[in-house]
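Minimal example, chain plus tryptophan.
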Amino acid sequence: MKRRVFSGIQPSGHLHLGNYIGAIRNWLANLDSRDNIFCVVDQHAITVDYDPDALREGTRQAVALYMACGLDPAQCRLFVQSHIPEHTELAWLLTCITPMGWLERMTQFKERVGPRRERVGTGLFAYPTLMAADILLYQTHEVPVGDDQKQHVELTRDIAERFNHKFGEVLTVPEPVIPQVGARIMGLDDPMAKMSKSATGHHHSVALLDSPDKVRKTIMRAVTDSQQGIVCDPQRPGLYNLLTIYQALTGLGHAEIETHFAGKGYGDLKKELAEVVIAEIEPIQARYRELTADPAYIDEVLATGVERLRPVVDATMDAVRRAMGHR
Ligand code: AMP
Ligand code: TRP
């Protein structure tokens, strides 16, 4: 039996290098040896203000991009969260055994809510229980995510353990899998802030669908410092971030990278990095164009994904409902 992997990405905005390096590439790395389930989490995307048409469009775009990155539907089950209503059913059941204190400790919530606490939707607060439901519904072993989601996967473990303790051994307790390089790619315009889909700066991120010209401009303008020399030093966050992207995409080690750039400057590094990034995303863009030219194919992949997940969903929900006294 292969170990089961589950992960997801929100369809809000364009997928960027952080999503690719922190998440998608690590899903691709183990496709053969795992039982893979990947989801576009459109119900997480409604926890903040959004536009329904943009969500509909973004969801399809995300599915096509998943496939364009190499997530072959023959090797994984791809689907959209809202197409399987049991995600929200299980989320409610788990919400009822999740203490408020656990959710109040979530750093992502604290960061996102800021001073708007009175006004944000309850869904933003309960968001991690929906994520726990996504993972636990499939009896997942491994959850490959970027560093920012580690706390949510740990919370999922706590919720699963609490459930099993209260109602009997029903749920598999999952593990977070965090990449060694690139678990937290920073904004190119601000190396102290995580690269994120919601940031508004024009030169903040490189999206997987950016044109070569845009990629060059964004990387050439990346914020660094006024020091000299290309060394892998976390104390120089702007430079370190560029080198991390370079390292993740080339597979070279720190020493090799430093030797390669010995005697060179930031301009040389940025020029070369831009070409490395472009070489990585151009084939993805070509496949994306092919895939989006045939919308019926994407619909078919999604419908098949749901069909192939049905038996797992029914088995987990049957066991959960019985254990909780609803059957
Ligand atoms: P999101 O864009 O929040 O839906 O994130 C989808 C996946 O990408 C999750 O596994 C995140 O941990 C990962 N991710 C998002 N932003 C970054 C980043 N800046 N660096 C590394 N991983 C990221
Ligand atoms: N919350 C995750 C994020 O914003 C996305 C997500 C939702 C997810 N459900 C998941 C990731 C289940 C892994 C497993 O990045």
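The longest helix spans residues 295-324. Residues 212-289 form a domain with the Tyrosyl-Transfer RNA Synthetase fold (CATH 1.10.240.10).
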